[in-house]
């Protein structure tokens, strides 16, 4: 007869053995075992997840694809794809649901935002609710607001130039982040944050620490329950409460607005149980991040690429000068929308340096075949749009900045719009893409119309990604001088 302790130890050993066998079986015999990748990835995703938390996956991913090809296994049930047909299938044709990662970054597991909703039906509902604030006519109505914000921006730049008696070096990454925050807050929340004018970085810093926390919270869901650890959004909540209560006061005074904040407040008033105050907060955080940093980074990356390709910069400036011959000519939505080279430059910039630099993650709902591999249910599949957009099988000279490829064939090849997804694709693509493009065109055209921009050499282009990319050096400087 065995005693209790012996049986207990025996059982433990057997359980351990069972787990090891399972891991070994999955590593070497499961359907995913045929997919190439680092050996450690057969057993555990941890080395990969650590890179994700460090914001370094965007630098490691391309190296893995280089070594193993367009399909790479980085964990027992964790696969990266850079292949166009695979990405089309995952995001567009089969339109898989979002992975549990998105649920894990919710602060309250029951409160989902437009980004963190993983249920396809509920997502559709949310998106429909917001669609009035993204209709063409509504967006066109925002033109005057955007102009006001951009005027403050040029006034600040002019003052800096005057103070320096000519040329001045500006951290474009910072001032553009302030500008797009001002535009987003003016358009969505009824009042500009006025960050360009104040140059106050407190708010940006709060958002940046929030975004870093998200990656950590997504992997360690228990973090927020540890004693002494604040919620990721604790500082943002204060800011948001202020905006919401100001709006509610205005409503009492009978001032009516029709913006995104109002949609949230009306939804909350109509059904405070299923759309709570916490829902308002989550949605607003999302809009603050998705509606500002993404656009400012795209603008900064575009300037970076232009400054490093001076002949393209001259070409674009010639186009803008002929569309707006006098510096007093107003840069408009309508006119910039039709400038072929400007739009080609923006596309080419988003192809080479998209904002979504790492994988867009989905969950496989039923066993399926992708790229000839059998992918079982519940596998996590990441679509690497950034890698596809530099695929040499699709793009000639993929690492060169060639806006012309968007206007006519380049080396006999037309730009493949199906291999270009800067706003993601499928049902979960970016709701704000037209807003962003309108804003980008105004910002870039205004900068080139009014200023001589120059490269500040010796800067690092190294990036990290925490939700959106960051310059590792923390800034991106550009020389600015008023044009005569
Ligand atoms: C830029 O890309 C979009 C999306 O693929 C496309 O509709 C548009 O025509 C492109 N612009 C130019 C100038 O090629």
Label this structure with key terms.
484 residues; alpha+beta; Cytochrome p450; 3-stranded antiparallel sheet; 20 helices; 10% strand; binds 2-acetamido-2-deoxy-beta-D-glucopyranose
Structural summary, described in words:
The protein has 2 domains: 1-30; 31-482, Orthogonal Bundle (Cytochrome p450), CATH 1.10.630.10. The chain has 484 residues and is of the alpha+beta class. The mean pLDDT is 91. Strand 1 (71-75) and strand 2 form a beta hairpin. It contains 20 helices and 11 strands. It has helices at 4-28, 46-54, 57-68, 84-93, 101-104, 120-130, 136-140, 143-163, 172-188, 195-198, 202-219, 234-252, 260-270, 277-290, 293-307, 310-323, 333-337, 340-352, 385-388, 433-450; strands at residues 71-75, 78-81, 168-171, 360-363, 368-370, 373-375, 380-383, 451-455, 463-466, 468-471, 477-482. It has a 4-stranded mixed β-sheet, with helices on both faces. It has a 3-stranded antiparallel β-sheet with strand order 3-11-8. Helix 2 runs antiparallel to helix 11 (202-219) and helix 13 runs antiparallel to helix 14. The radius of gyration is 25 Å and the shape is globular. Residues 340, 343-344, 347, 406, 417, 420 line the site of 2-acetamido-2-deoxy-beta-D-glucopyranose.
């Amino acid at each position: 007869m065995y005693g209790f302790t012996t049986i207990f130890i025996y059982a433990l050993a057997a359980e351990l053995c069972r787990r090891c066998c399972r891991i070994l079986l999955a590593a070497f015999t499961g359907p995913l075992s045929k997919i190439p990748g680092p050996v450690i990835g057969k057993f555990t995703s941890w080395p990969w997840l650590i890179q994700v938390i460090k914001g370094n996956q965007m630098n490691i991913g391309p190296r893995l694809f280089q070594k193993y090809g367009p399909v790479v296994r980085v964990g027992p049930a964790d696969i990266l794809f850079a292949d166009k047909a695979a990405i089309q299938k995952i995001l567009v044709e089969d339109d898989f649901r979002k992975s549990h990662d998105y649920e894990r970054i919710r602060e309250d597991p029951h409160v989902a935002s437009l980004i963190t909703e993983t249920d396809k039906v509920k997502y559709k509902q949310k998106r429909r609710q917001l669609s009035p604030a993204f209709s063409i006519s509504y967006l066109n109505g925002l033109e005057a607001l955007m102009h006001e914000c951009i005027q403050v921006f040029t006034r600040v730049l002019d003052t800096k130039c005057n103070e320096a008696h000519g040329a001045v070096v500006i951290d474009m990454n910072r001032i553009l982040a302030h500008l797009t925050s001002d535009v987003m807050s003016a358009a969505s929340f009824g009042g500009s944050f006025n960050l360009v004018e104040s140059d106050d970085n407190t708010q940006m810093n709060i958002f940046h620490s929030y975004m870093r926390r998200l990656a950590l919270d997504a992997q360690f869901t228990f973090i927020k329950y540890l004693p002494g650890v604040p919620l990721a959004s604790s500082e943002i909540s204060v800011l948001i409460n202020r905006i919401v209560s100001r709006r509610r006061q205005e409503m009492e005074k009978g001032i009516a607005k029709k913006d995104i904040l109002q949609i949230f407040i009306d939804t909350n008033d109509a059904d405070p149980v299923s759309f709570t105050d916490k829902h308002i907060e989550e949605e607003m955080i999302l809009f603050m991040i998705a509606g500002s940093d993404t656009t400012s980074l795209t603008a900064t990356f575009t300037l970076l690429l232009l400054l490093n390709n001076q002949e393209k910069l001259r070409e674009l400036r010639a186009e803008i000068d002929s569309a707006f011959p006098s510096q007093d000519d107003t840069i408009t939505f309508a006119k910039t929308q039709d400038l072929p080279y400007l739009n080609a430059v923006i596309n080419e910039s988003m192809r080479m340096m998209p904002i979504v630099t790492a994988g867009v993650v989905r969950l496989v709902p039923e066993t399926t075949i992708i790229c000839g591999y059998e992918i079982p249910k519940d596998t996590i599949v990441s679509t690497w749009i950034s890698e596809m957009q530099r695929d040499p099988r699709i793009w000639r000279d993929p690492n060169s900045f060639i806006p012309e490829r968007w206007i006519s064939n380049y080396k006999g090849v037309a730009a493949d719009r199906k291999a270009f997804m800067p706003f993601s694709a499928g049902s979960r693509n970016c709701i704000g893409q037209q807003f962003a493009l309108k804003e980008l065109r105004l910002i870039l055209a205004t900068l080139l119309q009014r200023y001589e921009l120059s490269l500040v050499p010796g800067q690092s282009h190294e990036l990290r990604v925490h939700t959106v990319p960051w310059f590792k050096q923390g800034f991106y400087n550009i020389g600015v001088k008023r044009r005569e």
